[in-house]
Specification:
The protein has nine helices and six strands; from the N terminus they run H-H-H-H-H-E-E-E-H-H-H-E-E-E-H. Strands 1, 2, 3, 4, 5 and 6 form a six-stranded antiparallel β-sheet that branches. Helix 3 packs across helix 5, helix 6 runs antiparallel to helix 7 and helix 7 packs antiparallel against helix 8. The longest helix has 29 residues. It is elongated and about 105 Å long. The mean pLDDT is about 80.
Length: about 280
């Protein structure tokens, strides 16, 4: 037989009035584990607590100073002196070249010898400033020789126009040699610049220029059949004025003018290797 209390509890359940028992403290096993346990390796730094240290870039390597600034003091002094000397030399060279190619003036007349000593022969300039007048003359270098034949007879050859032979090689050639174009012409200019109209030397380069012309002529003769042993040679120039154009009223004589040099006796010093091997004097 149920008691009154049991019956009352039964009626309460039927009405849904029974309340769940209050939750008690959870057991130790039900507690959530520590999500971020602190290791025992030592103290750590929290980036949120030190934002400046977290954003600092890694240390950079030391910057090397290039060029002269990176040298020691003695080395910088030596380098500065070398650069200054090079600059002064360049300025002197440019000034000498300018005076050499410029029209005649007070400075070029006063320092002409010093300028020529610096320029010639390594830095020689064959042009002039300020639109020079074009050449109005044709200069041909000719030579003849006194030879001794195998029978012992002596005779003088006809004049040989070596400038005309050079012109024949240049015409129609796509790549004429520098020697053919300039050797004889420059050699004659070299001689006339260092000799007066009486063929007297004007300085220390007079003898050099004369020997240079002789060596050119003898080397050219070694390529020809001279008919005997060359004992003496003679050189001359034939200068002819260029005929003016048809529309010009200028009157110019086109008759050639000759400048004949004295006879030169050939010596071993006048022979190039080519002329010596060809036996031009044997």
């Amino acid at each position: 037989m149920d008691s009154y209390d049991d019956k009352a509890r039964g009626d309460d359940r039927a009405r849904g009035d029974v309340k769940a028992p209050a939750a008690g403290p959870a057991p130790d096993d039900a507690k959530a584990p520590d999500a971020d346990p602190t290791p025992d390796d030592g103290p750590t730094t929290d980036a949120a607590e030190n934002p400046a240290e977290a954003a600092a870039p890694p240390p950079e390597a030391p910057v090397e100073i290039p060029g002269i600034a990176g040298l020691s003091l003695p080395s910088r002094i030596v380098a500065a002196l070398v650069l200054a000397l090079a600059g002064v030399t360049a300025l002197v060279h440019l000034g000498a070249v300018f005076l050499h190619i410029a029209p005649s003036n007070t400075l070029s007349k006063e320092h002409g010898e010093a300028v020529s000593a610096w320029i010639n022969p390594e830095f020689e300039q064959n042009w002039k400033l300020f639109a020079p007048n074009p050449l109005q003359q044709n200069v041909a270098v000719q030579s003849r020789a006194q030879i001794q034949t195998e029978s012992g007879q002596w005779r003088i050859t006809e004049w040989i126009d070596f400038s005309a032979k050079d012109a024949e090689q240049i015409r129609g050639s796509l790549l004429p040699s520098h020697t053919t174009q300039n050797e004889l012409r420059r050699g004659w200019d070299f001689y006339t610049n260092w000799h007066n109209d009486k063929n007297e030397s004007l300085g220390m380069r007079g003898d050099v220029s004369a020997r240079y012309v002789r060596r050119i002529v003898l080397e050219r003769m070694s390529e020809l059949d001279m008919g005997g042993r060359v004992v003496r040679i003679q050189v001359r120039s034939s200068t002819t004025s260029v005929k003016p154009p048809p529309w010009s009223t200028e009157k110019i004589s086109t008759k050639p003018v000759y400048r004949t040099l004295p006879w030169w006796t050939v010596t071993r010093a006048d022979l190039t290797k080519v002329a010596d091997e060809a036996g031009v004097t044997r």
